[in-house]
Sequence to fold (270 residues):
Amino acid sequence: MHPLLFDAVPVYFVMWACAAVTAVVVGGYLGARAGFPAARSAVAIVLLAFSVLAGSKLLYVAEAYWFPFDDYVPQSVRTPFHGFRIPGGVLLLAATMPLVCGVLKLPWRRFGDTAIPLVALALVFIRLGCFLNGCCFGKLSALPWAIAFPHGSWVFWYQRSKGWVTRDATVSLPVHPLQLYFVLAACATLGVLLWLQRQRHPPAYHQAIFCALFFGTTAVLEPLRQNHLTLNTWIVPVAAVVAAGNLYGRARGVVASVGSRSAVESSPRC
Fold:
């Protein structure tokens, strides 16, 4: 598919830019509304957005080094901007959140809970970019919503290299629209996080929810990917289990806190 804006800029990177700009603008507003300095909030969002980009690239570089055959795109047509793996970006985001907030003197647990819906929103843009770019496609499917991509798309190129379609075919064989599954997962995660914003929880609880939902849904969806990604297959399920365990521990803390508060309120007063 590989659509270009003005016949020069891949729409994939335009969607990444939209994700970053939206996160910075909305993040500054949300930070100010929550009582954080707007300027420092915006700077933090910029640095955190860069960490998502850098982590996504680093995981791809590691994959290309240790498992070079995971990438179906020939080395001759790869550019320096080719290849991103979103789980690596989320892992680096989780690692750098305390550091960035510490440098900018922001309470990372509370600020992170305020900002984390922006990551889910950014993922909606990024996954739509994957769909428009034709990358991250799913396996062959006969389901009613399976999509046939046009001649010249990465899906078509991959299937032609396997001998599944002829050179003069106009479209690919239908595949799972895996990119749109990821979009739906990001939208669902965003909806949950926005709903949680209306409630009071211990600091860092919303971040734990995001990590559990992101890695959990990714672990479910990754097996539908046509080209096997070894590091994703290893890292994502482990991260999902760790995130679920962290969330379970925090949820127990929330329940215990609510129970203690109820006991105090219901106890007889002198």
